[in-house]
Design brief:
18% strand, six-stranded mixed β-barrel, 32% helix, 14 helices, homodimer, alpha+beta, 659 residues
């Protein structure tokens, strides 16, 4: 088979998509089966392709993270090495994103970029398969001498995920060969008779599991299972300043843990791998454990945006109900990782709650991170920004205006940053956006399920071998009308199933001349489809108030506004000039309205609020409406758009007066 | 003069007390002028003397922090050194506490301990005066090679404070000689013609200023001024993971900063030194800057307890109004340091607001840290503890029961810990408690001002040379009646001034057969006093509700209960067995009451509350009183007593229903 043939078949129905379980309730569609044709996500995908991918490569070249591979290859590693020990992983995530983008678009520039980067990476691989630019060579610490924070296996895991993308969008090549050698090295080194260690940052597990699936190598999956079961026995040393072993999820075996805790990205990558292993090994106990942890963490440790991580300290989950809007961490990468977990759980179980959380997280965390030009990003995604610019972490830009020419530690000043010292988020967004269309629908034995709504085309093979082709026409989430046009109907009845989101009230399914109320769950058309017919799902997306559980102390007395899947927020830019976000109370007796494309709430504001009393605690409760308050109609913006116009103060949860 | 004579005179009216400004609005009393005879603080002082001091020495011996000095002296420093780079400072704070305790009690065991420790410290001093066990010797990094985090000058500052205590309670001795050599070394090394650096952790400044006062060495004060003015020009490198230069207060000169920010203890030690320098150099601009920062931070960055530090991340202040009860850091040392600043500002200005904050912080932060037996401590002092034990930082005691035989990172599981990895708080509490009586009153030209209330005796020399002797009889804060008995009245009129706390309502002054209402501020008796007469200040201390400023988002809709100077809290131990702190709403239409010595609030609870909904955000606001709620009378305990009975969940701010 020539490379061209290989590429063609790999992009077909069995080709590009990040997760292909051997079994499960649903079959994910490949890049050859689904494409976006316009709208919210198509625009993000286009910006990702045309701006973000090159942006990431430029920054990694500029900072020397790419040259680290050259130095290993040339034997010129010195005592000073640019970047953190995990900078290799950014290169791998970029390669992964480029590979998916090649699969999505077929444009050869992305293929060329994969080859260009692969060549540099491959040269740095040691003869025995070890590949890392921070350990194991001249002037480096020895291999695996810092399992807690060295991130060697973490980096390898991302290499394997990149190879999976390449394998499924192009075929077996040098990158796949490098990854195979690296995976073999890991199995030889950490196998049952090898070193008994685990990596401080889970990721190798999910990489091994998927590469094992992609190459049909069960021993890679088995090694992932071994790493999973080794974890939770306190073998990682907990350094000072890091919470407990829970930071690493090494305090308790994953089969026993009640909920998610510790470093959020670590926890979620680990959980994703656990689902993979549970599915491949038919391990119902392990799957049930992840489902239980998902249930508990989503019920009590998750933000309205879907964001996870309540603490800057340890980038971690908090306790149940600990969800401060202002210090919400909600790392972009935790949003990506949450989608990874929920997607795997959905494929395994078919439960729609997982697709609900994916939608929420995608629109309100993942889409929030990149600036509209794709060249700056949020790392953390708080739900309340008090100060504009005063709290920038960047010593070189303390005015809060993150410069597009500077590395930012965390972009905490209410503006996105071009690049970060730890720059995990841009490449994570890039690889996710490049595959986003593969999350839109799944196929079953005799059904096609639409999970996410975007204008696009789907040509899917059902489990029974029949093919169905549809076109989706929608301006979702701006508008809630989804029109499914049947382009090619299989012979005999099949089920076309449309997800009605959990937040939707009053949705209507219009098909075959009938209108049916559609409650949250599935709206199903199960009959002989007719080519050319249109099936319409109409989901009301007028703005609505959303109230928090009273146990979430940090949002007591506040209300949020949502519209469709979008969380909205108030930005200081939209306030009357003589007031501030601190002096704002929503009149929740009046529903939010939409007018001329703007979402508006009625609110009381206090003009020229004073600095406050000398001591902020006193004998009388604050009045619901302060003296001298006036009423304004305050425009809100979708949370994912905040700080797009300029750095701003912002809040999602608004103090509310209600009857 | 013999040592004995020296000791005697040093403990006299001009003797023991931590701060003796050259000028100022008020003169602090020395240990020879004031003594406690019983009650709240006398008990804490006794426990400190009989338990805590030995406890600290035992732990530092056991962990090798004391032996670090021996190793330097013996030339046996190796690559492994017990403790953090700043462990020397704990030894110095213990010596300081012992010196003050000797001054307070005159018991020779404390003098012997000072000598014992001094001998070991002195042996480690280099010939040029440099003294540090983590830098500058075999297997150490070079001197001053890590100004950001090496803490060398910080440690020296604590040595100088210890020497001040020794000088003022015993006299010039080996410890003072060591400190003098160390201070001379600092001046020679970092003087106008020396290294231009500053220490990442302020403390050398306050040490130099006070040693300069105690020895009449203006050049020490001048060196402190030099360090202060060097700060704020971004000369300290900001490492990754630490916020901005604000962490070190190196982002902006202290004369320009609007409020307190960054690491709280660093900020407050720096501010204390700034007041010292401002007073000694008659620098009104500098004094005004600290007053402005105090004003702004107390109004918007301070907890009801007086605690400071809203973030675990960076142990730092938050933004204005960022005061989460659950993640409040409120480090015990920041409470100590806040008292240091306020005391200096009170002495300089005579403004009572500083004494008000000292009272609040002493009762609710400093007194909260030590367990009643003086052998375990809180490091952080949050106002809300959600989980009992589940969140312990200690990998070896994840059940949350901090063992008395283990080092704890932060004692975050709702129980005090015997010792910490960074164990700054126990010795800081110890040195503060040993001097607490010197904060009770100050003398002026013709007046004596009582600032804090405790049973005790005062024999003070007024500025005009006359002496007044009084006895204070009170069960404060349990009871609000303060009886001042005049034991010796000076000839001619004088002013006896009693502070009426800012929180007090309806206080009454009873003197000379008359009763006067006493508003917050000063209740003054200005006349010829008569030996044997009694002057009574009666301050109502019935429990009261306190409400937060509505801009403090984290406590919206909540109320706290205070009684006199004490903040109260609800502990899970006191709940009906079938409910939790999460399911509690105070009926704020009913005032808190005191019955049989217990403070009680009326509250609604939900028996057997469920786990909560699958998604904690929904279309309806939570009812003010949940379905099935029943009414209970809930006992509250003083915050400083929480977790005394057992580890517990706790909250100061209680969700409230009010009309």
């Amino acid at each position: 088979m020539t490379a061209e043939e290989n590429a063609t078949t790999a992009v077909g129905p069995n080709g590009g998509r990040p997760v292909v379980p051997t079994r499960g309730a649903r079959r994910p569609l490949g890049m050859g089966e689904v494409a976006l044709t316009g709208g919210f996500w198509a625009k993000l995908q286009a910006t990702n392709a045309t701006a973000t991918l090159a942006h990431c490569e430029e920054w990694m070249e500029r900072l020397g993270w790419l040259a680290n591979f050259d130095r290993v290859a040339d034997g010129t590693t010195g005592p000073e090495r640019p970047g953190w020990s995990f900078s290799d992983s950014e290169v791998y995530k970029l390669i992964e994103a480029l590979a998916w983008e090649y699969g999505r678009s077929g444009e050869h520039a992305y293929d060329a970029a994969v080859r260009r980067l692969t060549a540099r990476v491959a040269r740095a691989q040691d003869p025995d398969g070890y590949l890392n630019t921070a350990f194991g060579h001249a002037n480096h610490p020895p291999r695996y001498s810092d399992l807690e924070f060295g991130h060697e296996l973490y980096c390898t895991g991302h290499l394997l995920q990149a190879a999976v993308a390449r394998l499924r969008t192009w075929g077996d090549d040098e990158l796949v060969a490098v990854a195979r050698r690296a995976a073999d090295h890991v199995c030889a080194t950490f196998g049952p008779d090898g070193l008994p260690g685990i990596c401080g940052h889970p990721e190798i597990e999910v990489g091994l599991a998927e590469l094992g699936r992609a190459l049909g190598q069960e021993r890679y999956v088995e090694q992932a299972r071994l790493f999973l079961d080794r974890r939770g026995h306190r073998t990682l040393r907990v350094p000072f300043g890091i919470g407990s072993g829970g930071y690493f999820q090494d305090d308790e075996p994953i089969r026993k843990a009640a909920t998610w805790r510790g470093h959020a990205v670590r926890q979620l990558y680990l959980s994703a791998a656990a689902v993979d292993v549970a599915v491949e090994c038919d391990d119902a106990e392990l799957l049930a454990a992840v489902e239980r942890q998902w249930t508990n963490a989503v019920a009590r440790r998750t933000y309205l945006t879907g964001g996870m991580g309540s603490r800057h300290q340890d980038e971690g989950f908090g306790e149940d109900w600990e969800l401060p809007p202002d210090r919400a961490y909600c790392e972009t990468c935790a949003g990506v990782a949450s989608v990874m977990v929920s997607w795997r759980l959905y494929l395994a179980t078919g439960q729609l709650r997982y697709a609900d959380l994916i939608e929420r997280t995608a629109f309100n965390v993942i889409a929030t991170s990149p600036r509209s030009d794709g060249r700056a990003f949020f790392y953390a995604n708080p739900l309340h920004q008090r100060a504009v610019g005063e709290e920038s972490d960047d010593e070189e830009s303390d005015d809060g205006e993150e410069s597009d020419d500077e590395v930012s530690p965390r972009a905490e000043g209410g503006a996105r940053a071009a690049w970060f010292d730890v720059s995990c988020c841009p490449t994570n967004v890039a690889r996710t956006l490049a595959t986003w269309h593969t999350y839109l629908a799944t196929a079953g034995e005799r059904e096609l399920t639409l999970l996410q709504y975007a204008a696009g085309q789907i040509s899917a093979q059902l489990g029974d071998g029949r093919t169905v082709e549809i076109e989706v026409d929608t301006a979702y989430p701006h508008d809630g009308l989804v029109t499914v046009r049947v382009l090619r109907a299989p012979a005999g009845p099949m089920a076309l199933r449309l997800r009605v989101p959990a937040w939707a009230r009053g949705a209507v399914l219009d098909e075959g001349g009938h209108q049916h109320p559609a409650a949250p769950g599935l709206a199903v058309v199960d009959r002989q489809l007719v080519a050319g017919e249109e099936i319409r799902l109409s989901i009301p997306v007028s703005p609505r108030y959303t109230w928090p559980d009273p146990r979430i102390d940090a949002t007591r007395g506040c209300v949020a506004v949502e519209r469709g899947p979008l969380v909205y927020c108030a930005e200081s830019l939209d306030l009357p000039p003589d007031t501030t976000l601190e002096a704002l109370t929503v009149d929740a007796a009046t529903a939010p309205v939409e007018r001329d494309g703007q979402v508006l709430v009625r609110a009381f504001t206090t003009p020229r609020p004073g600095p406050g009393p000398a001591w902020p605690y006193g004998p009388a409760p604050a009045p619901h409406t302060p003296d001298g308050a006036r009423t304004v109609e305050l425009p809100l913006v979708p949370y994912h758009q905040w700080a797009e116009r300029a750095p701003s103060a912002m809040r999602v949860w608004l103090p509310a007066r209600h009857p």
